[in-house]
Amino acid sequence: MLLAALCCLPLLEFGGNGLHGWSQLLVYPEAFRVRRSHVDAAGVLHEWDDELIGEAWDHGPLILSWADVQADLEEPDAGYCVAVHEMAHKLDVLDGELDGTPLLPARWQREWARDFQQAYDAFCAEVDAGRETAIDPYAAEAPEEFFAVASEYHFTAPALLRERMPAVAAHLARFYGPSPLL
Ligand SMILES: [Zn+2]
């Protein structure tokens, strides 16, 4: 019940279509390991383990670590919410591409792509320069992670996001509806 409510928080404005194409929510007691593999340009197979607290499959389940969901709830304004993060990936990939831009009306999508790209580039420059960043530096991993991490701040530290990334904050407020913490 609590998990369903958390996962639906990002859908208040978007609606039930955000759940399109998948139906399973898996909950593990703690962070979990997944086996990764990659064949590099020279044809060499690399394998390694990743430890995750959440994962969103393109057409499959959403997976969450219960210990981390609870930690988020204990500090609801700390900028972290793994349930929101993974739901952002689910919304992002609805248009077939995980790229940090969800399915939006054409004009808004162009504005979103432009504003997010600008903010992402500026953020990556800060991270590269070794400066202390306003939001979790994990957001510099990729445009889709930037969107997912910014979404966490929309729901948990909206004032900070608005102050440091006003254009991004405005898009997210329009996309998700006003933050419950404002
Ligand atoms: Zn992510």
Describe the structure.
This protein has 182 residues and is an alpha+beta fold. The protein has one domain (2-176): Collagenase (Catalytic Domain), CATH 3.40.390.10. Helix content is 45%, strand content 15%. It contains seven helices and five strands. The protein has helices at 2-8, 66-74, 82-92, 106-128, 143-156, 158-164, 166-176, and strands spanning 25-28, 32-39, 45-52, 54-56, 62-65. The strands form two sheets. Strands 1-5-4 form a three-stranded mixed β-sheet. A two-stranded antiparallel sheet has the order 2-3. Helix 5 (143-156) crosses helix 6. The two termini are 24 Å apart. The protein binds zinc ion. Zinc ion (ZN) is lined by residues 85, 89, 145, 148.
- Major sheet characteristics: 3 strands, mixed
Overall, the morphology is: globular
Percent helix range = 40-55%
Compute the CA-based radius of gyration: 16 Å
Number of discrete helical segments = 7
The second-level CATH architecture is 3-Layer(aba) Sandwich
Overall pLDDT score: 94
- Low-pLDDT stretches: none
**Count of domains:** 1
Q: Tell me, what is the CATH class?
A: Alpha Beta
CATH homolog superfamily: Collagenase (Catalytic Domain)
Beta content comes to: 5-15%
Q: Might you state the CATH topology name?
A: Collagenase (Catalytic Domain)
Ligand identities: zinc ion
Read across the widest sheet, the strand sequence of neighbours is 1-5-4
Helices and strands, in N-to-C order?
HEEEEEHHHHHH
- The span between the termini is 24 Å
